[in-house]
Amino acid sequence: MTESTNLLTSTLASTWRGWQGIAARTDTDQPRQMLQLYEFENCPHCRIVREVLTELDLDAQIYPCPKGGERFRDQAMALGGKAQFPLLIDPNTGAEMYESMDIVGYLYQQYGNDDVPMRWRIVPLQKLSSYLASAARMTRGTYAVPSKPPELLLELYSFEGSPFARPVREVLCQMEIPYILRSCGRSEPGEWLPPKLRDALGIEPNSKLHNRVALLEKEGKQGIPYLYDPNTGEGLFESEAIIGYLEDTYARD
Ligand SMILES: N[C@@H](CCC(=O)N[C@@H](CS)C(=O)NCC(=O)O)C(=O)O
Q: What CATH number is attached to the domain comprising 170?
C-alpha cells in the first residue's frame, strides 16, 4: 500500500466511525492503576473500546493479540478463559470483561460518572460502522508478524480517530509489541484547527488533558502520534518515522 493510499483508507476508517474517538472529556476520574486491554487493532469490537478510552481520557496497557500471535493470546486465555477480544482487566476493581458494549458501559459508569451517551446505545449502527472501518483497512492490524519482544512497554501518545496514529498502532499490533496507550484526544475548540491555520491565527491549543500537557513539557510540542521507547531512550514524532523505527528495532526476519 502506498503512503497516500494508507492515509486515505485510514481517513476513510475514521470517517465510517463518524470521527468518534477524538473528542475527550476532562472531568473523568482517573484510575489509580492502569487498565489493561487485550485486543487487536483491526477488530471492530476492540476499536469501540479504544474510542471510549479516548473519550474518557483513560490510559491503558495494550497487549496486542493479533491472529496467529503467540505472545499474549495465551495470557488472555489464562486470564479470561477464552480467546475473544477485547478483554479488559481493571486491577482497581478486579473486573475482567469481554463484550465491547459491556466494557463501554463499565467505563462510563466507573470513570465517566455518567450514563452511557445515547449514540453508544445504537449498537447495530456502532457495530456496522466499525466493521466498515475495519474493511477499509483490509488486513492491517490483524495478523502477527515475527518480531523481537521489548523488555519494557513502549509508550504511544495517540487518539483513536487519528488517521496518522492508526498505522502506528497497526504495526505495534502486528509485531505484538505491548505499549502504554497515552490517550491524547482533543478537549479544546482550538485543537480541531489544522496546526498551520492555528499558528496563522495565533490560537494556542491550550489542552487541559494530562498527556498533552506532559508531552508539551517533555518535547515542546503536541504532535500525535508520538512514540517513546524506554528500552532505547528514543522519542519520535511522525507516523512514517515511528514505523521505520519499529521495523529497524524490533523486526525479526
Ligand atoms: N460480542 C463481542 C464480539 C467479540 C469478537 O467477536 N471478537 C473477535 C475479534 S473481532 C474475536 O475475539 N475473535 C477471536 C480471535 O480473533 O481469535 C464484543 O462485542 O466484544
A: 3.40.30.10
Please give the residue range of the domain that contains residue 118.
3-250
Mutate which of 40, 45, 103, 132 for ligand 1 pocket (most atoms within 8 A of beta carbon): 45
Q: How many domains, the chain?
A: 1
Centre of ligand 1 to C-alpha 29, Å, is: 28
Q: How far is the CA of 74 from the centre of ligand 1 (A)?
A: 15
Residue 215 DSSP SS3: helix
Atom nearest to 44 CA in ligand 1? 10
CA 100–ligand 1 middle distance (angstroms): 9
Beta carbon of 167 within 6 Å of any ligand 1 atom = no
**Helix H or strand E encompassing 155:** strand 154-158
Is any atom of ligand 1 closer than 6 Å to the C-beta of 37? no
SS3 216: helix
Assessment of whether the complete model's pTM goes beyond 0.90 = yes
Mean pLDDT of the 215-237 span? 95
Mean residue pLDDT across the chain: 96
pLDDT the model gives residue 1: 67
Share of the chain above pLDDT 70, in %: 100
Give the three-class secondary structure for 226. Answer: strand
pLDDT digits (tens, 9 = 90+) for 157-192: 999 999 999 999 999 999 999 999 999 999 998 888
At 164, the amino acid letter reads F
Cβ pair 58, 49 in contact under 8 A: no
